[in-house]
Amino acid sequence: MVRKTSKVSMTAESTSTVGSQRNYEIMLVLNSALSDERVEAITDSVRQIIINGQGTVADVKNFGKRRLAYPIKHHGDGIYILINYTLLSTVNQSIENLLNITEEVLRYMIVLHE
User: Fold this and answer.
1) Which domain CATH number covers 105?
2) Could you give the CA distance from residue 76 to residue 1 in angstroms, rounded to a whole number?
3) Range of the domain at 75
4) Which candidate, 42, 112, 103, places its Cα nearest to that of 74?
5) CA 112 and chain centroid, separation
6) What is the tens place of the pLDDT at every residue in 75-102?
7) Is residue 26 part of a domain?
8) Is the C-alpha dihedral spanning 83, 88, 90, 94 positive or negative?
9) What is the pairing mode between strands 105-113 and 2-5?
10) What is the pLDDT of residues 5-16, one digit of tens each?
11) Do 32 and 77 meet the contact criterion of CB atoms below 8 Å apart?
12) Is residue 59 assigned to a domain?
């Protein structure tokens, strides 16, 4: 699921497109019981798909364990990860496929920056 949005606070460098590549961000909510190593492994898997798809990862932020507004899959807490990247839109399906089969991912959202 890709949603379109625009951010006023982004720099001109991060909003430019390279060829037919576009700027995206993905927010992951992971199971709060995961070890730091497993969180890093999931993040690296997403990063590797982006790099293999000729994209670039601009930033990865781990916001840590946060309380969810409502339970997701019977979990009250989640680990929030934000990844900003530039990629061809066709490769996003590979990222979605990975996240859909990874049980530790409670929720994710991919947002397109125009």
Assistant:
1) 3.30.70.60
2) 23
3) 2-9+32-113
4) 103
5) 11
6) 999 999 999 999 988 889 999 999 999 9
7) no
8) negative
9) parallel
10) 444 333 334 444
11) yes
12) yes
